[in-house]
Specification:
There is one protein chain. This protein has six helices and eight strands. By secondary structure, the protein is α+β, with helices and mostly antiparallel strands. The strands form three sheets. A three-stranded antiparallel β-sheet has the order 3-4-5, with no helix packed on it. Strands 6-8-7 form a three-stranded antiparallel β-sheet.
Length: about 220
Amino acid sequence: MWLKFGVARSGELTSIDEVVRGKTQLTCLYCGGSLTAKKGSVKEHHFAHTEETCKPVSQRIKTKAFPSLPLYNNFTIELYGEELEQLKVLWKEYGAQNYAISKDLVNFRWELKGLVESSGDRTYHFTDLGKIPVGALPLALFNKVQEPLLLSELASLESSVEIALSAGLSCLDERRADLLIYRAQLRRILVNSLYFLEVCDSLPSNQWIKPRNNTAHSH
């Protein structure tokens, strides 16, 4: 996962989709360093530091820890390709026919992730969440599954910022940046009128842009 947002001179966040390839006037949310838009034909479009990549961004690239919307980034389910194909076959042969699924056909990871649940008598059925990766959940139901997950993740990030603020933790700037990236992604889907959620901007942008000198190898 890559850095997808930069900070404009106005303090507003700008998406990689809104700029042309090359050096930009944008800066990094985490360190204040200048950014270059990488928009080639091989890697996913993203921002890279024009000079050295700061440690917060470098670490998030390695661990894929940039905040992302639940279900929008491969549904946040993290299934292997083979697992996903098995799940699709199971849906086609059992779920779509409303047949009970025998326990010996169920991967324990699917149950752990909430994709299937027990019906009793050693049988299982697909949950609404499990219907999403197989393309079987109607949009109206998808919204019902998605909305609480979106709000839960938002609340978690806001709580993380509040804890860092009250405790005076050194990671406060990073947590604020994570929260702002998440809010920016959330606004993008709200603009498309698919979801109607009220996002509270309790943190003014001028509270979080505090450049640091922590650097790592550039990418």
